[in-house]
TrEMBL record:
The lineage of its organism: Eukaryota, Viridiplantae, Streptophyta, Embryophyta, Tracheophyta. GO terms for molecular function: ATP binding; protein serine/threonine kinase activity. InterPro entries: Atg1-like, Kinase-like_dom_sf, Prot_kinase_dom, Ser/Thr_kinase_AS. It comes from the Eukaryota. It comes from Gossypium stocksii. Transmembrane segments: none annotated. Residues 61-318 form the Protein kinase domain. Gene3D superfamilies: Transferase(Phosphotransferase) domain 1. This is Protein kinase domain-containing protein. Residues 16-26 have a biased composition (Basic and acidic residues).
């Protein structure tokens, strides 16, 4: 507080020597700076509140309620002031980024700003302050796929096929840019469109996605264990095929209502994967599934990553 008062006193002394119009301009700039700092403090102070008492303005956007948060970011539901369009704003706290995360952020922003695909979340705008980066993204009113599965339970094979076609199309774009998502799971897949014509969008690429030159392998452990490929659980090098395993786990969950493998710890989870001789399909639905569907799920969830075929298999394109 003493430092702040000292700065204010120095500003008053300096202002006395300025012409009145300069003092007025300086005063206006100071008030704007204070207002900007107050808004940032409010954003950080209200991070624990799901709904803001009053919307906070960031550029042309009004932040209204918190959708989710992590240790380094908060995602807000927001509204465009000029037209009323709903958007999502991801607030990233720059001070919480290490060098690796900062590099990931730059890489994925370049990717998202250059891609416009119906099955990948769209980046609309980027705003930056001294302490935060604000990514304005399209808003998906249908929530995420995890909530959808909890609400509706397992889905019919025809709908699962349609969902997989959409996710396969999105992953094809990622692979063409040599990007691994690394944390593909129902929580990171958003739903848009109408109830009868749902569109899936791959999201949360920032901080999860990783650019990888052809023929190279990544080593960092990243992802959610229930959807994580065994080579990642074993701290082995991996490539884009780890996303295929995650896709297989999602397909299995769509058809059965739960992930294919479980365990109290990562070690137990890995043991259950390795000891499995066949996928634990529910006997209530297995007789009703087309053999191609079961075969695709088995291939994607093979412990041999070389068998994790995706885009060339008829199941995706049929």
């Amino acid at each position: 507080a003493g430092d702040v008062n000292a700065v204010c006193k120095r500003r008053k002394k300096t202002d006395k020597n300025k012409p009145s119009n300069q003092r007025e301009k300086s005063s206006n700039n100071y008030r704007q700076q204070q207002q900007h700092e107050r808004e940032l403090m409010e954003l950080q102070g209200m991070a624990a509140m799901p709904y803001l008492l009053e919307p906070i303005t960031i550029g042309d956007y009004l932040l209204k309620s918190k959708l989710r948060e992590s240790s380094i970011s908060i995602v807000w539901k927001a509204e465009t002031k000029s037209c009323g369009e709903e958007v999502a704003v991801k607030q990233v706290f720059l001070s919480k980024l290490n060098k690796h995360l900062a590099n990931c952020l730059d890489c994925e922003l370049n990717f998202l700003s250059s891609v416009n695909h119906p099955n990948i979340i769209r980046l609309l705008h980027v705003l930056q302050s001294e302490s935060c980066l604000f990514l304005v993204l399209e808003f998906c009113a249908g929530g995420n796929l995890a909530s959808y599965i909890r609400r509706c339970g397992r889905v019919q094979e025809q709908l699962a096929r349609r969902f997989m076609q959409q996710l396969g199309a999105g992953l094809e774009v990622l692979q063409s840019h040599h990007i691994i998502h690394r944390d593909l799971k129902p929580e990171n897949i958003l739903l848009s469109g109408s109830k009868d014509d749902l569109v899936l969008k791959i999201a949360d690429l920032v901080f999860q996605g990783r650019s990888l030159d052809p023929g190279n392998y990544a080593q960092m452990v990243c992802g959610s264990p229930l959807y994580m490929a065994p080579e990642v659980l074993q701290f082995q090098s991996y490539d884009e095929k780890v996303d295929m395993w995650s896709l297989g786990a999602i397909l299995f969950e769509l058809l059965n209502g739960h992930p294919p493998f479980r365990g109290r710890t990562n070690v137990q989870l890995l043991q259950n994967i390795k000891s499995s001789t066949c996928l634990p399909f529910s006997m209530l639905i297995l007789p009703r599934l087309h053999p191609d569907c079961v075969d695709m799920c088995s291939r994607l969830l093979s412990v041999n990553p070389g068998l994790a075929l995706l885009l060339s298999i008829n199941f995706i394109h049929s």
